[in-house]
Amino acid sequence: MSNLDTQLALTFKSACLAEIEALKPGNVHIFADGHGMVVQDFVRSAEAASKVIAQLGITVGQRISDAVDATWNAVGCNTNLGVILLCAPMIQAATDNAGPDFRKSLELVLQNLTLSDAELAFKAISRAAPAGLGEVAQHDVRHSPTITLLEAMQAAQQRDLVARQYANGFADIFNTGYTRYMDTMQRWDSPAWATTAVYLAFMSTYPDSHIVRKYGEAAARLAQQEAKAHEQTLLAQKNPKICQPNLLKFDADLKARGINPGTSADLTVATLLLISLV
Fold it and tell me: What global pTM score does this model have?
C-alpha cells in the first residue's frame, strides 16, 4: 500500500470503530450486542473492508465489491453493506484528489459512475442480501443493470436513504450529520457522545430505511418519534452522560422489538468518515 492507501484505510477503519464505541439505541455498540450480532463482528468487518476499500486505481464499483467480499470472508454475514455503499464514493473522491473542495470532488465522482459500477454494486448487494430486500419492478439488484449506478440510486432514493445520498450529493451527511457532530463536539468535547447525537439526528429526522424494509413505514415512524424525544432530552444537557441510563433502556426496548435502525448507523459512519476527510 502507498501512503495514501494506508492513510485512507486507517481513516475508514477508525470511522467504523468510532461508531461502535458510541451508544446507539437499537444498534450494536460497545454497551450492548444485539440482533444476533456482537461487537467483534463489526470490528472484524472494519478491519477486513479497510484493507481493500481504499486501494488506489480502482473504481467505486470495485471498492464496493471487494469490501463486501472481504467482509463476508471475515464474518459470513452482512454487517456493513450500507457503510460500504456510502464510503466507497467518498474514498474515491479522496483518492482522486481533484482539489480542496471535497464536496465538489464527491459530486464529480457520483456524476461519473458507470454501468460497470452498477454491475459490481448490484452483485455485492445481492450477496449481502440486506434484511427486507424485496423485489422491485425496475432496476432490481438481482438482475443485470441497464443504467449507471447513479441512475439506479436515483431510482431508489424514495425508498432508501443510502440511495438518497447518491442522488442528492450526500446532502444529508453534510447538512444533518456533519453539522450535528461539529455542534455537539463544541459543546461537549466528547467524540462518542457527539456520535450518539449524530445517530439520533438521523434516526429522528428520517424513517430508517432498514426498519421500513423489515417492519413497514408505521414501525419506522414510531421509532422515529421515540428517537426524537430522546434527542431533545440529550441536546438539552450540559453533561450528556446523564442520558445514558434512559438511552440504554431505549436500546433494550428497541432490540426486544427486533428494531434495528441500521441505516441511521450507516449514515453515522459516513459522517465520521467525512469529518476525517474534509
Answer: 0.93
